[in-house]
Amino acid sequence: MADNSWGLFTTFGFFIVMLFICGAYCLIVTRNMMRALIGIELLIKAVTLLIILAGYVTGRTALAQALVITIIVIEVVVAATAASIIVWVFRHTNTLDVKSLRNLKG
Amino acid sequence: MNIDIALLIFTTVAALWSVLARSLLKATMSLAVTSALISVLIFRLSSPLAAVIELSVCAGLITAVFVSAISLSKPLTHKEVLEISKHRHKRYWYLPFILALAAAALMFLKIKKDFIFALPPASQEEVKTVLWNMRQFDMLGQVVVLLAGALGVVILFSGEKRDGR
Known about the structure:
heterodimer, A: mainly alpha, Helix Hairpins, 3 helices, B: mainly alpha, 3 domains, 0% strand, flat
């Protein structure tokens, strides 16, 4: 890996770690289901950027783009399904708090 | 490189705001801004196709899904907002400090580049070649996941309709 690429990798990597910490903290601390979903989205965005960066640095942008397209498709499905589950839970429990899920009966 | 660093700083600030914002709508808008900035960064990293999909799908479609989900839930009263925000500060004010600590730790950490193993020489393929010829199984998986997601959303909302009858 050339020095120029290494500098780019470390600079981007630094901010990608920041993005990942934001998402992980949101996921750990929040009790609101919508905010948890936002945390998951932030985590996925950090990983997406990391894959594109790895592809750019190693000269495999085509492969990285193909992987990222797959990730984005799965991200959309996760977001849509999770949002509909959240709406469904809200209609039944009248709250977005994850603690309300403790009351689920089999 | 300077533009990249500025974009990366704005992306981190937008991500931080999407976690710290009191209103869910503001958090969703900040997430859309984060997506848009990331798509610019992806474009600058010579990946235009992924950038366009990130911008249209993540900044557009997912934001629309989030806003519609938020609009279907009941807004809190002013009293409830004040009560919740009192407890929120206690839980969330650690995040900027954790970010600052992690930044300091990463700056002092001397990472050697020897840990990355030597890669075989890169081949110059096009995205469509990789997507349709090399990763056909991925495409099949994507189609199945899309169908499963669409079915899941339809079943969840049609179940609600049946309950309402």
